[in-house]
């Protein structure tokens, strides 16, 4: 048995995710799914977290902060941490230039700073993708940590720059930076299995929703048994896990994890501050 940390994360995409992934500028139906997340789903999630008395980390696009300030202020006033998720929720690999990516990141910082009064220390990239410039921009703009890549499962690690991935040459991982990474996983994300999108090529069969949360429970139990000091980073979206009756399944999962010995629920910025000190 080992000491474990749980980092509950909520990617508060709201409407922004529909505007880029699905080009739904003219679809009020798709917009409304994001509005639900902002105005209903987030409230339900906050009620679960309040009942369980656990902290969490919310990655908030500037677009959400500027569109739904009351919903984001509710997250803040409940004591949860707010971190950067870009402004427009554009996939970093799709910017036409480094300058465009930098401008979006800076706009995200300005939006969150004006709402929270604090500068975010962490970044989660939209779609968990980096461009060739992302890591350099994070360093330039003073970010201390990221939660976007998948080089480990439960152990934080430092991101590397100047890597080389020529298909005809051995992979060169590059040199270590001071940007800490809290790895994510598509298997600990509610989007792939629980968000139905008409016609999406990644759409799988409809899951047994309760079993889906039980799979997360089994993953946590494995980590707790096998990885001393492991960090269980779970990614959810208010517009997905906020759908009935999933808040109840989340509450049951939190109760289960909290019932284990030597388990602490923390925000990622507090863990990063400890590791980097
Ligand atoms: Zn997102």
UniProtKB/TrEMBL annotation:
Boundaries of every NodB homology domain copy: 28-266
Pfam family, one: Polysacc_deac_1
UniProt-listed SUPFAM superfamilies: Glycoside hydrolase/deacetylase
Signal peptide (from-to): none
Gene3D superfamilies associated with the record: Glycoside hydrolase/deacetylase (3.20.20.370)
Listed InterPro entries: Glyco_hydro/deAcase_b/a-brl, NODB_dom, PgdA-like
Full protein name: Polysaccharide deacetylase
């Amino acid at each position: 048995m080992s000491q474990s940390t749980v980092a509950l994360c909520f990617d508060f995409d709201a409407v922004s995710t529909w505007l880029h992934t699905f080009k739904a500028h003219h679809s009020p139906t798709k917009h409304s799914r994001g509005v639900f997340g902002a105005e209903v789903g987030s409230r339900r999630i906050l009620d679960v977290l309040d009942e369980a008395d656990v902290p969490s980390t919310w990655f908030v696009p500037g677009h959400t902060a500027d569109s739904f300030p009351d919903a984001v202020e509710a997250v803040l006033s409940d004591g949860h941490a707010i971190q950067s998720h870009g402004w427009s929720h554009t996939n970093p690999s799709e910017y036409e230039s480094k300058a465009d990516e930098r401008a979006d990141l800076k706009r995200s910082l300005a939006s969150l700073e004006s709402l929270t009064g604090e500068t975010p220390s962490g970044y989660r990239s939209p779609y968990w993708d980096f461009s060739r410039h992302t890591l350099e921009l994070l360093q330039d703009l003073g970010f201390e940590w990221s939660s976007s890549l998948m080089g480990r499962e439960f152990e934080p690690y430092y991101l590397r720059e100047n890597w080389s991935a020529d298909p005809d040459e051995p992979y060169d991982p590059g040199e270590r930076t001071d940007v800490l990474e809290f790895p994510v996983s598509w298997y600990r994300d509610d989007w792939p299995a629980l968000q139905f999108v008409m016609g999406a090529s990644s759409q799988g069969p409809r899951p047994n929703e309760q079993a889906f949360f039980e799979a997360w429970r089994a993953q946590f139990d494995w980590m707790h048994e096998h990885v001393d000091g492991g960090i269980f980073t779970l990614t959810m979206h208010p517009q997905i896990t906020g759908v009935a009756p999933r808040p109840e399944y989340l509450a049951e999962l939190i109760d289960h994890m909290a019932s284990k010995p030597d388990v602490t629920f923390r925000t990622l910025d507090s863990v990063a501050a400890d590791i980097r000190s």
